[in-house]
UniProtKB/TrEMBL annotation:
InterPro entries: SAM-dependent_MTases_sf. Coiled coil: none annotated. GO terms for biological process: methylation. Keywords: Methyltransferase, Transferase. It comes from the Bacteria. This is Class I SAM-dependent methyltransferase. SUPFAM superfamilies: S-adenosyl-L-methionine-dependent methyltransferases. GO terms for molecular function: methyltransferase activity.
Length: 329
């Protein structure tokens, strides 16, 4: 059995649960960080698809206060969330049996819940957050039969806990898809142990999806993209003083826990045979990893084109993060 004692201690002392906890509680409760207007999916950027239309519509009904803040902060992150949710739904229809989905640290768990509601029993989802405000938002729409919310940080979800709790035991066999949404960067830059800990819940042929903000090897390029994000997108939803306040209260601390794509490539190849970069918005990227080339290919075939204006995209997508031939053993 792997020893995670030092890692768990590290997580308990992380910014997310300590100096940043007040920001997350207030934002999740709608007491601060509220955008001037509600973010809406730009349907001009997305293809015509009945299932996608249903996802976007239900997702809009289920969003909570933190969703509204988050999707107003990152250019076209809302469209990417709908694209990923739509792909997961299609993927669940293409495989046999029930798909287990774990969405870790994703505020109200809106994407996972929406997937479960539309899947009609084909997707059992688990979302987690340490904020009771997020749990309140999740339960505000009723307790769905195929979506579960765990109140606590991701590192509290140990294998023993999942196996011992009646409401979590259905996930004891592992997850087909794990989705990490800008969570690790709130804890530390220790991506190796973060992925190692969470991957113990992933099935051997499962998919691990990451949405993260990455540092750039060139600091000036990193900050140029940040200025573009703030002036070209966030300014539609927040005042200049609100943007400065968040930079001082949260981002300056969070940025210390970001890693570069070069660094994440070295880490990922120690865990997964294959990793593709499938979305980019300034300093934010979506990565999809797996040790199953077939499942990764199948999921990728369900992804609709990225819904984002070209000026925010700094990569030819999709592309491999590292050579396929690398031996992870």
């Amino acid at each position: 059995m792997k020893d995670f004692s030092k890692f768990l201690e590290e997580c308990e002392g992380a910014p997310r649960l300590n100096e940043l906890s007040g920001f997350f509680a207030a934002t999740a409760g709608g007491r601060s960080g509220r955008p001037i207007k509600q973010p809406q999916v730009d349907r001009r950027l997305m293809g015509e698809d009945e299932l996608l239309d249903r996802f976007v519509s239900l997702h809009e009904q289920r969003r909570g206060p933190f969703d509204q803040h988050y999707h107003s902060s990152i250019p076209y992150r809302l469209e990417e969330e709908c694209r990923l949710g739509h792909a997961i739904l299609q993927y669940s229809q293409a495989i046999s049996g029930t798909l287990n989905l774990y969405s870790l640290g994703t505020a109200e768990g809106t994407m996972a819940r929406t997937v479960s509601e539309l899947a009609n029993g084909r997707v059992e989802s688990l979302s987690c957050s340490p904020n009771v405000e997020n749990q309140d938002s999740f339960l505000a729409h009723g307790d769905p039969p195929h979506a579960t919310f765990f109140l606590g940080p991701f590192h509290h979800l140990t294998r023993d806990l999942i196996q011992s709790r009646p409401d979590l035991a259905k996930f004891a066999s592992g997850f087909d898809i794990i989705f990490e949404d800008t969570t690790f960067q709130m804890y530390s830059p220790n991506r190796f142990d973060q992925i190692r800990f969470v991957s113990q819940h992933l099935k051997s042929d499962g998919l691990f999806i990451f949405v993260e903000k990455f540092r750039h090897d060139n600091d000036e390029e990193y900050f140029r993209r940040e200025r573009q994000k703030d002036s070209g997108f966030k300014a539609r939803f927040f005042s200049p003083s609100d943007i400065r306040a968040k930079q001082e209260a949260v981002l300056n601390r969070m940025n210390q826990n970001e890693v570069t794509l070069t660094e994440i490539a070295r880490t990922m190849r120690r865990h997964f045979s294959h990793t593709f970069v499938t979305w980019n918005s300034g300093n934010f990227y979506t990565l999809i990893s797996s040790n199953s080339a077939d499942n990764l290919c199948l999921f990728s075939s369900k992804l609709s084109p990225a819904a984002i204006p070209g000026e925010y995209v700094y990569a030819d997508l999709p592309y491999r993060l590292y050579p396929e031939s690398y031996d992870v053993t």
